[in-house]
UniProtKB/TrEMBL annotation:
Binding-site residues for substrate, renumbered to this chain: K71, N116, R117, M118, G119, F120, N186, N191, N269, T270
Pathway note: Pyrimidine metabolism; UMP biosynthesis via de novo pathway; orotate from (S)-dihydroorotate (quinone route): step 1/1
Family label: Belongs to the dihydroorotate dehydrogenase family. Type 2 subfamily.
GO molecular function terms attached to this record: dihydroorotate dehydrogenase (quinone) activity
InterPro entries named in the record: Aldolase_TIM, DHO_dehydrogenase, Dihydroorotate_DH_2, Dihydroorotate_DH_cat, Dihydroorotate_DH_CS
Ranges for domain Dihydroorotate dehydrogenase catalytic: 50-364
Organism the protein comes from: Actinopolymorpha rutila
Gene behind the chain: pyrD
Protein name: Dihydroorotate dehydrogenase (quinone)
Amino acid sequence: MYELLYRRVLQHIPAETAHRLAFAAIRFAGAVPGLGAGMRRVLGPADPVLRVRTLGMDLPGPLGLAAGFDKDAEGVDGLTALGFAYVEVGTVTAQAQPGNPRPRMFRLPADRALVNRMGFNNHGAAAAAERLRRRVEGGRAGSRRRTAYVGVNIGKTKVVPEAEAVGDYVAGARRLAPYADYLVVNVSSPNTPGLRDLQAVERLRPLLAAVRQTLDEAPQAAQAGHAGAPEPRRVPLLVKIAPDLSDADVDAVADLALDLGLDGIIATNTTIARDGLRTDAAEVTELGAGGLSGAPLKERALEVIRRLHARVGDRLVLVAVGGIENADDAWERIRAGATLVQAYTGFIYGGPAWPRKVHREIARRARAAGYSSVAEAVGTSGRPGPGAHR
Ligand SMILES: Cc1cc2nc3c(=O)[nH]c(=O)nc-3n(C[C@H](O)[C@H](O)[C@H](O)COP(=O)(O)O)c2cc1C
């Protein structure tokens, strides 16, 4: 049905308009009392083999929605009702900003890809924090049942000079920490001038150290998703990196993350490369600058996860994103070392039934390989599964 809707309607309207329409429907479903919960019961991951305990969360499955879809934390309930185990909201910047002029999001259907130069359009950290606070406090009184886990991805406000980037990230982190199950420092989007330069270790070190310190000092307010009494907790911190880093730079970020006591790395963001596309080169050039996501990113994103896993083993939680289109891709990333996986473009092309389908098929693969939990498969590439010994 989604394929029909996509072919007849969605693909004929601008990509961002299609996104807004689809997201409005998802938000509506999440907001109708009883509907979201009912959908979550039917579509949400329920197979115990999928359960993943990581970063202080007890997730029903490994697949989450990548940052950029729900920039302002407006649709967490609707999105988890479709079957995502968690949602990474953002990128949120300390100050509200409009992003780049439209059009700024384009489909490359022949490549199962997107190009975007959104430029962190968002309502700012105060608005996102308020929305997340209301969500948590609006939960049924006394209910301690968690309905959704929320990662919060923060970035730099465009008008803030690069020399003041640390203070800007810290301001965002301070506002949002109380509502984040985990926090991500995004230094890898290609659409904010100079942002990716922050990935250089000498600039990344003070930034990550300052955000870590802010999280440690932040008031232990609500634990996101819980309507009960707040519990003291340490907010896990991750950094999200670009696929365009050299291998040496990937290693350097991994070493830094270990050195600073970070919890994990999210790999990868979109790429500025345009290699190997089927879409006509002139057409691609015409679209202009932006980050490329989806299938063309698959190979490099997998390579980065492999590299990170070889470097850090299980000392950091690796979150794989980039070109995950189906359960095979997700399973390969898990076996390469990812504890969690995320997607954006695969969901756009796959439609609302996609998260459920991917989770179901990951469960099938895990069982077929003889694992009692997906977690047992993390980093097992090149090793026979337990089933091989039975
Ligand atoms: C339209 C669009 C907007 C995005 N916005 C953000 C963002 O605000 N912050 C971020 O960290 N990543 C953002 N991303 C990157 C995704 O989170 C993801 O890292 C990337 O698209 C690769 O995954 P995919 O191939 O599954 O899409 C965006 C991606 C797309 C397509």
